[in-house]
Amino acid sequence: xxxxxxxxxxxxxxxxxxxxxxxxxxxxxxxxxxxxxxxxxxxxxxxxxxxxxxxxxxxxxxxxxxxxxxxxxxxxxxxxxxxxxxxxxxxxxxxxxxxxxxxxxxxxxxxxxxxxxxxxxxxxxxxxxxxxxxxxxxxxxxxxxxxxxxxxxxxxxxxxxxxxxxxxxxxxxxxxxxxxxxxxxxxxxxxxxxxxxxxxxxxxxxxxxxxxxxxxxxxxxxxxxxxxxxxxxxxxxxxxxxxxxxxxxxxxxxxxxxxxxxxxxxxxxxxxx
Length: 273
Fold this sequence. Notes:
Order of helices and strands: EHEEHEHEHEHHHHHEEEEH
Radius of gyration: 17 Å
CATH superfamily: LigB-like
Low-confidence stretches: none
Mean pLDDT: 95
Shape: globular
Largest sheet: 6 strands, mixed
Structural class: alpha/beta
Number of helices: 10
CATH class: Alpha Beta
Helix content: 25-40%
């Protein structure tokens, strides 16, 4: 089994799972692509979602986390979805060990469930919920540099067959949503292209300074929590020698569904969709 890559995936609007969007189909197909490229199904998953921030890094440790419906105004059907993924003592102990060797403290929350940023992509990729999952919080008010270092802390997990998954959106402005299928606005395209080009060119320094250097950044991200999972995934795979953009589309006109794989260059290079 090869070392797992780390992934940055979009969770889009909460109703993505009810649609026939191309990004939904991409994530449904991604499971087999990942298995083919890495030679194995992940032994566990650590997911970092835009929708959980804490002052101290915190992990879910409940054996049977609930499905959180952290949204309103969507079809009733969406609120009946349950994603019954469980964690495992081995997965919890694995992340404890990497934090013990880091400069980060770690707290545990036995009551926290999985928010829609976590369960939306996981449900599309592993609908049977048969892979152990643990959710890790983002740092509240912390910048890209902090989250890259948080990702670096997680990097050794990949050698154990654990997938590090960041879930957010490359653009995220709820005031600028439009009809599904409409052409994306120029600001969304420009920001998406700038981040993608810098990442693929290996210009990590520029991406880390996106607030100063990226075009249309304040429109693309009035708040930056949907971009921070990108930096966790990037940090986790930064030393692995591979960065690949594995999907590109827009949802509700302005939400970029761009997806990236990091690390394990020989694995990432095989991730053709």
